[in-house]
Amino acid sequence: MHHHIHDFDLAISFAGEDRRTAYKLALLLKERGAVVFYDEDAQAELLGETLTEYLIDLYKNRASYCVVLVSKFYVEKRWTRHEWKAAQARAFEEIDAAYILPIRLDDAELPGLLPTIGYVSLPGHSLPEIADIIHRKITGAASVNRRFRMADRAYQQGDFKNVISILEAINHAELLRNYSAARLLVDALMAIGNDATALPLLCELLNLAGENAENQFLAGVCCYHLSRFKEAVSHYERTLKLAPWNLTAREDLRRAKAHVRSASRKVRTQIK
């Protein structure tokens, strides 16, 4: 199973003309302990064609947040053509708005940038203030991401106890906000047979992240191991609604139902 890992806390996207500001901001953020992607060489390739894909790849695969320095240069260079407006508006919709942090360097409008995203403007704040605002925003997520990276490495090495101690040190609410980290903790707990701790966490994930066949199935497995067969039956049944092709769930459901039947037979004989 592949867990989602971000190498950087944030990436900075900027126009060449705004390089000095980007560079200063990157330095200020690094001083505050953030892992920043500020790639001198990549910027040259970012003129127009690949920007949208690049931002999505960065956010989805490499950075937890993307700081965009919005200026007339940024807008002119990157968003002039009409089809771009459509393409990047769609692209930004795919991304959870909270991950794009726009810093406005002048009063240029970036077409398609969702109006719900809070802008911070440079004329109104000093660069160190802006670095503080960004740092506060990313700190919670960044520390979870850093721990997640450590835990994922431990998981790959089969050191499940270490995975658990790294992830259980995270504040519980923060942990639940990072779905991959919470799932990794579930996997490690189940790997050492601690189903009793894994189950409530799975139930919280099901409440938060909605119906998910894999989570339902794992909850069924936990209940089965804990001899809570009636609950196991309902988790397996929900799994099969979502993923009818899951043969293991089908087989486990049959076994769990047999346990429930034999338990009710025992109760009946006792009543007699």
Task: Please describe what this structure looks like.
A five-stranded parallel β-sheet has the order 2-1-3-4-5. The N and C termini lie far apart (50 Å). The protein contains 13 helices and five strands. Helix 1 links the parallel strand 1 (8-13) and strand 2 (36-37). Residues 80-84 have low confidence and may be disordered. The protein is α/β, with parallel strands linked by helices and 272 residues long.
At the fourth level of CATH, the homologous superfamily of the largest domain is Toll/interleukin-1 receptor homology (TIR) domain
Helix and strand succession? EHEHHEHHEEHHHHHHHH
The CATH class of the largest domain turns out to be Alpha Beta
User: Can you list the strand order of the major beta sheet?
Assistant: 2-1-3-4-5
Which consecutive residue ranges, at least 5 long each, have pLDDT under 50? 80-84
Can you give keywords for this protein?
single chain; 272 residues; alpha/beta; Rossmann fold; Serine Threonine Protein Phosphatase 5, Tetratricopeptide repeat; 2 domains; five-stranded parallel β-sheet; 13 helices
Brief rundown of the structure:
The protein is of the alpha/beta class. Helix content is 65%, strand content 8%. Helix 6 (127-156) packs antiparallel against helix 7 (160-168) and helix 7 (160-168) crosses helix 9 (179-191).
